[in-house]
């Protein structure tokens, strides 16, 4: 079984590793290198492919540079959070099929941020789906699907790690079945479709006018990447760890308590305790350390935080 694998972020790495244990990967396709200041940064998948000694292809536009793919013989194309849409010529290239490992329980959360959106929406369970790829985004027949509980204490990192490992095993199971026979898969119910667009700057903004559990879910949904934020005294504060209080009360945005470890802010219902923050232009720091420095002069009980 010859496989072209396509993926980019850390979510795709366990999938790549697991496939490589069982099958021949003839090519790894990943997004082009990025540049942070003067440093060239490889994708997580590229780093792993180099470690495994696999050939790598990094097209700026895969459909305009498709001939490299079409000249590479394969039985399957397998994608996991690759980051570009595949045209029909590429989808039809493998002898068997093109399949995708998607981080949601389809047909819910089609799109580029399914895990973050599920956490943000307070889902009680999350999962992965292995689907046939079609020209329509995340709309192919479902070959396998598995759910796991989403604990309240899990954030973005824990959910991504659990689902990428689950997806890796499920993908290999599906490939083994496809090697034996063509599978029809289960058609997705269009009436149950929801979407998970990429997280925008607006999505990251915290409003303490909302219930505390909604603020908490927003914080934990993006606490390993962008970070949710609020504005206070003409500065932006990002929040990477927080505590949920359902029984505390105050006016929305009001700083109702400051302990040695937390800044506690009232919401529409309940409150949020800030534990790990990043002040604009500064490093991420525990609130305890922040309060031992400039923080105690900036945040005062009774003040109102907008946003």
Descriptive account of the structure:
With 307 residues, the protein is α/β, with parallel strands linked by helices. It folds into two domains: 191 residues, 3-Layer(aba) Sandwich (Rossmann fold), CATH 3.40.50; 98 residues, Methionyl-tRNA Fmet Formyltransferase, Chain A, domain 2. Helices cover 27% and strands 27% of the residues. The chain has ten helices and 15 strands. The strands form three sheets. The chain has a seven-stranded mixed β-sheet with strand order 5-2-1-6-7-8-9. The radius of gyration is 22 Å and the shape is elongated. The model has no long low-confidence stretch (mean pLDDT 97).
Instruction: Estimate what percentage of residues fall within beta strands.
Output: 25-35%
Task: Sketch the topology as an H/E string, one letter per element.
Answer: EHEEEHEHEHEHEEHHHEEEEEEHH
How many strands, what sense, and barrel or not for the largest sheet?
7 strands, mixed
Instruction: Determine the fraction of residues in helical runs and give it as a percent range.
Output: 25-40%
Chain-averaged pLDDT: 97
State the helix count.
10
Return the CATH topology of the largest domain: Rossmann fold
What is the correct CATH architecture of the largest domain?
3-Layer(aba) Sandwich
The number of E-state strands comes to 15
User: How many structural domains are formed by the residues?
Assistant: 2
List segments where confidence is low: pLDDT < 50 over at least 5 consecutive residues: none
Q: Largest sheet, order of strands side by side?
A: 5-2-1-6-7-8-9
Shape: elongated
CATH superfamily of the largest domain: Formyl transferase, N-terminal domain
Helix/sheet category: alpha/beta
Provide the CATH top-level class of the largest domain.
Answer: Alpha Beta
Ends apart, CA distance between termini = 53 Å
Gyration radius from CA atoms, angstroms:
22 Å
């Amino acid at each position: 079984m010859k496989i072209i694998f396509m993926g980019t972020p850390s979510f795709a790495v366990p999938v790549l590793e697991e496939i490589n244990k069982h099958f021949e990967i003839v090519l790894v396709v990943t997004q082009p290198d990025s540049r942070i200041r003067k440093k060239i940064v490889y994708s997580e998948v590229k780093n792993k492919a180099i470690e495994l000694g696999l050939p790598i292809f990094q097209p700026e536009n895969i459909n305009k540079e498709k001939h490299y793919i079409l000249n590479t013989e394969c039985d399957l194309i397998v994608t996991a959070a690759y980051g570009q849409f595949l045209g029909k010529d590429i989808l039809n290239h493998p002898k068997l099929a093109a399949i995708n490992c998607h981080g949601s329980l389809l047909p819910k959360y089609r799109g580029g941020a399914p895990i973050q959106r599920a956490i943000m929406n307070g889902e009680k369970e999350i999962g992965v789906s292995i689907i046939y790829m079609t020209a329509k985004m995340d709309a192919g027949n479902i070959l396998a699907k598995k759910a796991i509980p989403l604990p309240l204490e899990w954030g973005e990192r824990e959910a991504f790690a659990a689902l990428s490992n689950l997806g890796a095993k499920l993908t290999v199971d599906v490939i083994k079945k496809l090697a034996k026979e063509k599978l029809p898969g289960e058609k997705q119910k269009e009436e149950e479709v929801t979407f998970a667009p990429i997280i925008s700057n607006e999505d990251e903004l915290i409003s303490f006018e909302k219930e505390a559990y909604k603020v908490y879910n927003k914080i934990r949904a993006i606490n390993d990447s962008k970070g949710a934020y609020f504005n206070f005294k003409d500065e932006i504060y990002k929040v990477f760890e927080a505590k949920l209080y359902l029984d505390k009360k105050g006016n929305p945005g009001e700083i109702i308590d400051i302990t040695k470890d937390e800044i506690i802010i009232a919401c529409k219902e309940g409150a949020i305790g800030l534990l790990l923050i990043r002040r604009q232009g500064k490093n991420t720091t525990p609130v305890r350390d922040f309060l031992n420095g400039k923080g105690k002069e900036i945040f005062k009980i009774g003040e109102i935080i907008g946003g």
